[in-house]
Amino acid sequence: MIIDVQLASFLTAGTLIIIGLYAALFLDNLIKKIIGLSFIGEGANLFLITMGYKPGGIVYIFLPGMARDWFAQNAAYPLPFAMVLTSIVIGASTLAVMLGIIIILYKKHGTLSASKVLKD
Q1: How do residues 47-96 score in pLDDT, each as one tens digit?
Q2: Could you tell me the pTM of the whole model?
Q3: Which residue, of 31, 39, 92, 99, is most buried by count of CB atoms within 10 Å of its CB?
Q4: SS3 content of the chain, % helix, strand, coil (to 5)
């Protein structure tokens, strides 16, 4: 069952990345492009989280009674989780900056169409 969940997570991550690439490359609305870029980031985060799971792994810090615990038998690498946490923080701040730039572009050009903004 765990393999099925892990495979479903990989497929979901791939789907998020493909949807994000479609939105970033083929949609004309700037807000939709930013949402697509956010989908790409979230798909990458889900991929890293899924890769971090290791069935039968070791626990780095043992607490009393943990050796017989389910978690101790199915541990995960802590590095991908730390990387994803950092990625979430960076992604949120980058998203805020991109939305701020879009507000300025909308005030200057009066439209959210990427083709019209690039014409001006």
Answers
A1: 998 887 766 565 566 666 666 666 655 666 678 888 999 999 999 999 99
A2: 0.79
A3: 39
A4: 75, 5, 20
Instruction: Supply the pLDDT for residue 78.
Output: 74
Q: Contact 72/11 with Cβ under 8 angstroms?
A: no
Token pair recorded at residue 77: 């690498």
The string of DSSP codes covering 58-81 is --SS--TT-TTSHHHHS-B-HHHH
Q: How many domains does the chain have?
A: 1
Distance of CA 83 to the CA centre of its chain: 11
The enclosing domain of 61 has a CATH number of 1.10.287.3510
